[in-house]
Amino acid sequence: MTSQHLTEAATSRFVRIREGELDLQLHYNDCGQGERVVVMLHGSGPGASGWANFNRNVAPLVDAGFRVILLDCPGWSKSDSIVCEGSRSDLNATALKGLLDALDIERVDIIGNSMGGHSAVAFALRYPARLGKLILMGGGTGGASLFTPMPTEGIKRLQGLYRAPTIDNLKAMMDIFVYDTSDLTEELFQARLDNMLARRDHLENFVKSIEANPRQFPDFSPRLGEITAETLVIWGRQDRFVPMDTGLRLVAGLPNAELHLFNRCGHWAQWEHADKFNRMVLDFLTH
Ligand SMILES: O=C(O)CCC(=O)/C=C/C=C(\O)C(=O)O
C-alpha cells in the first residue's frame, strides 16, 4: 500500500484481545507493509482517535517504508468502551501488548501524543523488550508542574466538554488547543463533534472514570531512569494542556532522551507543525 491509498476506511481493522483483565474489541488502522512497525497512540480528548490525531503524519512514514498502526485506545472511537478506576496509562499499555500479540508483532517504535505519551512510557516500563525507539509529544508522565496550577486550563475545558458535549464547549477547548487557531475549520469542528456524539458511552465512561480516580495518569518520574530506549521528547512552548516543564522532567529522568521545543505551538505539535515534525521523526527513527 502506498500513501495514495491511505484512507481511514481502507485501513480500518478490528481485533479481539484478551490480555490480563482486558477482554475487548479494539479498533485500529493498519497502514503500509514495512517490516519496521511504528505505533501511534492518541490523546484523551473527547472524539479523539488515532486517525484524528495523526492524519498528517502517517503518509511520510509509509512512503519511507514503515508499517504504521494507529490504535484507538479502549474508550475511544470504534474501540470498546470501559470505565477505568486505576491507571489509564497502564490500561492502554496492556491493550497495546494485547494488540501486538494478536498481530504477531514482536517489537515497535511508539509515538505517543499526550495520554498516548503517558501510555507509551507505561509500555516502556512494563514491556521493555517489545520497544524500539520512543517519541513523546505533549505527554509521558502525569504529575505536578512547577509553574502551572493543575488541572491546567486545557484539562479543565477537556473535562467540561466530557460533561457537556456541545459545539460551544468543543470550540472553547479547541480554541486553546493550538497556538494558531486559523487552521481550525468548521469542517474539523463538525467531524470532531460527530465523533464525540457517536459514542456517548465513551463520554459517560470517561466521566465515571475521573470520578472514581481523578489521577488517571500516574507520575512515572521516579522510574524514568529504568527506560533505556532512545527517546525524542517534543513539546509545544505554548502548550496549555500539559505544560512544557513536564517535558523537562522527562529529559531529566530518561537517560537516553533529547528534547525539541516548537515555538508558536500548542498541544498538537504533530498537527500544527506537521512537516517539520514528520522530518524530525523520520530522521530520529532512521539514524
Ligand atoms: O491529562 C493529561 O495529562 C492528558 C491530556 C490529554 O491526553 C489530552 C489530549 C487531547 C488530545 O490530544 C485530543 O483531544 O486530540
Share of residues in strands: 15-25%
CATH class: Alpha Beta
How many independent structural domains?
A: 1
What distance lies between the first and last C-alpha atoms, to the nearest angstrom?
A: 24 Å
Could you state the oligomeric state of the chains shown? single chain
| Order of adjacent strands in the largest pleated sheet | 1-2-4-3-5-6-7-8
How would you characterize the largest beta sheet?
8 strands, mixed
CATH architecture: 3-Layer(aba) Sandwich
Name the poorly predicted regions: none
Order of helices and strands: HEEEHHEHEHEHHHHEHEHH
Number of strands: 8
Structural class per helix/strand content? alpha/beta
Q: Find the CATH superfamily.
A: Alpha/Beta hydrolase fold, catalytic domain
Tell me roughly what share of residues is in helical segments. 25-40%
Radius of gyration: 17 Å
Number of helices, where a helix is a run of at least 4 consecutive DSSP H or I residues: 12
**Approximate shape:** globular
Kindly report the average pLDDT value: 96
CATH topology: Rossmann fold
In this entry the ligands are:
the ligand O=C(O)CCC(=O)/C=C/C=C(\O)C(=O)O
